[in-house]
Design brief:
Blueprint (H helix, E strand, L loop, with lengths): L2 E5 L2 E5 L21 H7 L5 H17 L5 E3 L11 H13 L3 E5 L6 E5 L5 H4 L1 H8 L1
Antiparallel strand pairs: 1-2, 3-5, 4-5
Helix pairs in contact: 2-3
């Protein structure tokens, strides 16, 4: 049986709706957002598999730190199957590609990592860089 209300002398049917959360609620799946410039620079990595994996993990940590610089422990990715030497090689390569910047942290063997927000256009277009050299 439907409920009715009377408005201005007319009977109007009323139906109760269940509230819907905007955006469908929070997703349980983790994700990172890569720009096309970051993808192009990652393709230049010599050890693409490890460097790419470390960069994705750093992006996720940066997201959790609200895009502010964050401290990284010496064995931060050991639970993800990345050894310390591989982690440091990947970090140095990401630094060389200018995807991240590092500085010494307060704790022993810790780095403060910040993800580069602005990537220069010459890094995206090798033709413009070669024109400038000649």
């Amino acid at each position: 049986m439907s409920k009715y209300v009377v408005r201005h002398g007319r009977r109007i049917a009323v139906e109760t709706l269940k509230p819907v959360q905007p955006g469908g609620g929070l997703s349980a799946e983790r994700f990172v957002k890569l720009t096309w410039a970051q993808v192009k620079l990652l393709h230049r990595a010599t050890r693409f598999a490890t460097t790419g994996k470390v960069f994705h993990l750093l992006l996720f940590r940066s997201f959790k730190a609200y895009a502010k610089p964050f401290a990284l422990a010496a064995d931060a990715f050991s639970s993800n199957g990345i050894s310390r030497p591989s982690q440091w090689r990947a970090i140095r390569e990401l630094e060389r590609l200018r995807l991240i910047s590092t500085e010494p942290g307060k704790a022993k063997r810790a780095l403060v990592i910040s993800i580069s927000a602005a990537i220069q256009t010459e890094a995206l277009d090798p033709a413009s860089a070669s024109k400038r050299k000649h």
